[in-house]
Every structure is written in structure tokens, then in C-alpha cells.
Amino acid sequence: MVADVRLSPTANQPRSHLDVYLRVLSALMLRDMRSRFGGTYWGYLVQVLWPCAHLGILVGIMNFRGLKSPMGDDTLIFVATGALPALAFQYISREVMKGYLIHKPLTYFPQVKRFDTIVARALVEIVSSFMGVCLICLVLVSVGSDPIPSDWFTAITGYLAAISLGIGMGMVNVGICSIFPGWVLGYILVTLTLYITSGVYFLACFMPDEIYYYMKWNPITQLIEWVRLGYNPSLPIEIDYLYIFGWIFSSLAIGLLMERYLARAQQ
Predict the structure, then answer these.
(1) Do 183 and 101 touch, CB atoms closer than 8 A?
(2) How far are the Cα atoms of 56, 145, 256 from residue 140, in angstroms, in the given order?
(3) Cβ proximity of 81 and 227 under 8 Å
(4) Cβ neighbours of residue 80 under 8 Å, at least 6 residues apart?
(5) Helix-strand-coil percent breakdown of the chain, rounded to 5?
(6) Residue in 177, 133, 190, 186 with CA at minimum distance from that of residue 159
(7) How do the pLDDT tens digits run along the chain, 267 residues long?
(8) DSSP state of 43
(9) Do 244 and 222 touch, CB atoms closer than 8 A?
(10) How far apart are alpha carbons 215 and 232 in whole angstroms?
(11) Could you tell me the CA-to-CA distances from 225 to 71, 123, 188, 208, 230 in Å, in that order?
(12) What is the pTM of this model?
């Protein structure tokens, strides 16, 4: 008996470079999602739910200490507008670096490039970040808060700037940890210090002028103020957009150069 085998016109044709690249990215992203929190896709939900838990802890601490929101009467909105951009920067800049180290053995396969591991982890973190924002908005609505900003454009662009800076600093971290792997732990201490001093729990613009001047050198402080300005345009805040975009584009350029000339030199 002769089997009637009919091949599709493209069955024997080689895949395009774009098709191979997209398959590599999707495989790396799925591996990222499965490798966290017990090695299951359900464990990935912890990554998305963590910002909600973080927000609840901060609000609980403020209520326990009797602290009032300095920006309106809604403590949840005040904490959310400070924590979300700070966490977006912190998680992405850290996880891009960790993703490179985790996927580094896969780069021995010719289809997997070092830059692919960075892109895959960045995409996973961006999706996780936006899913966390959507979930927090649902939680805020369910408890009677209004998560709708007064100025949509200002609030969204501020959050996108935080994500962009996180990607840029993550690429810089890849270059550093390719030479000094201990930087992974060192950067955790750096981001923790930045998080505490960036104005998540307070309004930096209400600090004394001498202190506020130096705080504005921290780009995370200005990113938080950028988002909060979208919720309360009457705040006495002046954002140095040129300074923030300088940080974003400089970190991206330096990160790309370090990935090309430092990370590759260590292979």
C-alpha cells in the first residue's frame, strides 16, 4: 500500500530569519514564566500579584502609624502612584540582568543570541508590569477608590518612562555583571536604597528646598512625581524632562555598547 502523502507548499522551505527569531523569543519567554516560583505557569501569577500585596503592606503600615495622604484623601492612590513607577523600574532593571545570567548557557546554541535573552526577559517584565497595573486598578475600584488620573497622558507617559529607564539600566547591569557577577547582590542594595529615598511614602516636593534639590538628581524621584502630576496637576512639581530622557537614552546606549564589547568579550 502506498501512502498518499501531500506536502504543503512550504513544508520543505527553510524558515525565515524572522520566524526563527520569533520562535527563539517565544521559547525564552515561556522558559522565563515556567522557571519562576515552582516551575509552573501558575507560579508566574505570583509575579503579577506581588504589586498588589506590596501596595496592601504599605497602606497597612501608613494606617497603623496614623499617617495621612499628603495628596488628597485617598491613601491607596497616593501609595499606588509612588510604588508602581518605582517598582516598574526596580523589577525590570533587576530581572533583565538576572534573565541574562539564567539564560546564558542557552547562548551556546547558534540560534540563541545574548541580546535575545535580554529582549525576552524585558518583554516578560513589561507584560507582567502592565498586568499588575490592571489588577491594582481593579482592586482600587473594588474598594471604592478612583484610579482614573486627571491627566491620562501625563500619568501614562510617566509610567512608560519608568519602564524605559528600567530596560536601559538593566542592559547596563548585564554589562557590569558579565565582568563582576557579584553585582547582582550589590544592585539589590542600590535599588532598595533608591526605593526608600525616592518619595514613595512622601511627597518630595514638600521637603525643604535644600533636600529637594538633591533628591531631584535621582531620576526615580522625578518619575514618581511625573506620574503623581497626572493625578494632581496642582502639585508644586517641575519635571526636568530633558534630564530624565537623558538618563533613558544614555543608559540604553551605554548598555548596548557594554553588551557588544564587554559581555561578548567574556564568552
Answers:
(1) no
(2) 11, 5, 38
(3) yes
(4) 55, 136, 140, 147
(5) 75, 0, 25
(6) 133
(7) 444 434 444 445 556 777 877 888 888 888 877 776 555 656 667 767 777 777 778 777 777 776 677 777 788 888 889 889 999 999 899 888 888 888 777 777 777 777 888 888 888 888 888 888 888 888 888 888 888 888 999 999 999 999 999 999 999 998 888 888 888 888 988 888 888 889 888 888 889 989 999 999 999 999 999 999 999 888 888 899 999 999 999 999 999 888 777 655 555
(8) T
(9) yes
(10) 20
(11) 11, 25, 23, 16, 9
(12) 0.85
Question: Residue 214: what residue type?
Answer: Y
Indicate whether 1 belongs to any domain. Answer: no
- Quote the CA–CA distance of 118 and 99 in Å, as a whole number: 7
Is residue 140 in some structural domain? yes
Domain count, the chain: 1
Contact 103, 112 (CB under 8 A): yes
Cell 490592571 locates to 134
Contact by Cβ (8 Å): 243, 215: no
Question: What residues make up the domain containing 178?
Answer: 17-266
| Residues 202 and 79: beta-carbon distance below 8 Å | no
Q: Which residue has the cell 536604597?
A: 193
Alpha-carbon gap, residue 12 to 76, rounded angstroms: 58
Q: Is residue 9, in this structure, part of any structural domain at all?
A: no
Instruction: In whole angstroms, give the CA distance from residue 194 to residue 222.
Output: 12
Asked if residue 11 is part of any domain, the answer here is no
